[in-house]
UniProtKB/TrEMBL annotation:
TM segment ranges: none
Pfam families reported for this sequence: HMGL-like (PF00682)
The protein's name in its UniProt record: Hydroxymethylglutaryl-CoA lyase
The keyword Lyase is annotated on this UniProt entry: yes
CDD domains documented for this protein: DRE_TIM_HMGL
UniProt cross-references to PROSITE patterns, sorted A to Z: PYR_CT
Similarity remark: Belongs to the HMG-CoA lyase family.
GO terms for MF: lyase activity
Domain of life of the organism encoding this protein: Bacteria
InterPro entries noted in UniProt: Aldolase_TIM, HMGL, PYR_CT
Gene3D superfamilies per record: Aldolase class I
Domain spans labelled Pyruvate carboxyltransferase: 21-289
Length: 316
């Protein structure tokens, strides 16, 4: 146990948790893709720079998707060159198909993410394809990206529930995970796109995936916080051995093609819990809070992050 400083949690480790967690920051992509107003490119670049300066080592920068589908990220070509030379930070970008990959590679991106769905309804809504059609689109994209030496993440959305289909059978998630690994993805991220998961469900899915030869070492978790379960779900995943957790600075986020999706787990709330457990993240919480406050000012509304509000209040 150690004594907290001002604005820091008391450190009390718990058994059987990882010593270090890699936070995959998705604020500039998942966060800003869902904003009503389009954020100026220079503000996005400054947001990414500040996140890197706060110690986040992986910051998902943008998406090379069709600009009409996600107009908020239509400036990917202008944004990426402004941040790509930042030192010591990985800047993955989303690509939905070969056209997206070519756009990303042309700018020197070396980390890409494809995004699949465990359900037919979301595959159709988000990618205009069936699940199998979208996997067929991804196969050559992943192969080409690997040939170019890029690191590839595979997202699987709607792992815990779908707004059109309800409960999602575990075998559907396992099938898509297996297909993405077979085509060469280096890591997977399990998306609770609409934030309906609870901790027992998380443990059940992780165990089912292990049984289907999907090792925990390649799995990250991506919880949206619609029902306030994201931190509890994260702790369950850590107890199972997961060491990569997606989060969004200030709790920004959602998906324009799943109306019931709200913000991601707030990075500040995650860092408060991890540091309280004595888990290393490399993140400076004070700088992170200052960054999210700065972004909230740019967006003109307060952040939903409880930790951010608590720490802001202390400083007033
Ligand atoms: P489509 O309309 O079927 O596209 O959309 P298409 O393949 O028929 O092509 C039509 C035209 O679009 C063609 O142009 C293509 O060249 C062009 P034309 O020949 O007619 O002149 N086109 C492109 N242009 C620029 N960049 C591209 C591109 N692709 C085609 N990449 C498509 C299919 C996949 C493009 C579309 O559905 C799309 O862009 N979807 C993206 C949706 C999205 O970004 N959703 C949010 C991210 S996923 C998420 O948030 C979930 C996650 O956070 C995890 C979780 O929470 O669960 C990751
Ligand atoms: Mg998401």
């Amino acid at each position: 146990m150690s004594t907290p400083g001002l604005g820091l949690p008391m450190v009390v480790p718990a058994p059987d948790l990882p010593a270090r967690v890699r936070i995959h920051e998705v604020g500039p992509r998942d966060g800003l893709q869902n904003e009503k107003a389009t954020v100026p490119t220079g503000v996005k670049a400054e947001f990414i720079r500040r996140l890197a300066d706060a110690g986040l080592r992986t910051v998902e920068a943008t998406s090379f998707v069709h600009p009409k589908w996600v107009p908020q990220l239509a400036d990917a070509e202008a944004l990426f060159p402004q941040v790509k030379d930042l030192k010591g930070v990985h800047l993955p970008v989303l690509v939905p198909n070969m056209r997206g990959l070519e756009r990303a590679l042309a700018l020197g991106a070396d980390r890409i993410a494809v995004f699949a769905s465990a359900t037919e309804s979301f595959a159709k809504a988000n990618l205009n394809r069936t699940v199998e059609e979208s996997l067929a689109v991804f196969e050559p994209v992943v192969a080409r990206a690997k040939d170019e030496g890029a690191h590839v993440r595979g997202y699987v959305s709607m792992c815990f529930g779908d707004p059109w289909e309800g409960a999602v059978p575990l075998h559907q998630v396992a099938h898509v995970c297996g297909a993405l690994l077979d085509m060469g993805c280096d890591e997977l991220s399990l998306g609770d796109t609409i934030g309906v998961a609870t901790p027992g469900h998380v443990l059940e899915l992780l165990a089912a995936l292990n049984e289907q030869h999907v090792p925990t070492s390649v799995l990250g978790v991506h919880f949206h916080d619609t029902y306030g379960q994201a931190l509890a779900n994260t702790l369950a995943a850590l107890e199972h051995g997961v060491t990569t957790v997606d989060a969004s600075a200030g709790g920004l986020g959602g998906c324009p093609y799943a109306k019931s999706a709200t913000g991601n787990l707030a990075t500040e709330d995650l860092v408060w819990m991890l540091h309280g457990l004595g888990i290393d993240t490399g993140v400076d919480l004070g700088r992170l809070v200052a960054t999210s406050e700065w972004m909230a000012d740019r967006l003109g509304r307060p952040s939903p992050s409880r930790t951010l509000r608590a720490l802001s209040h202390k400083e007033q």
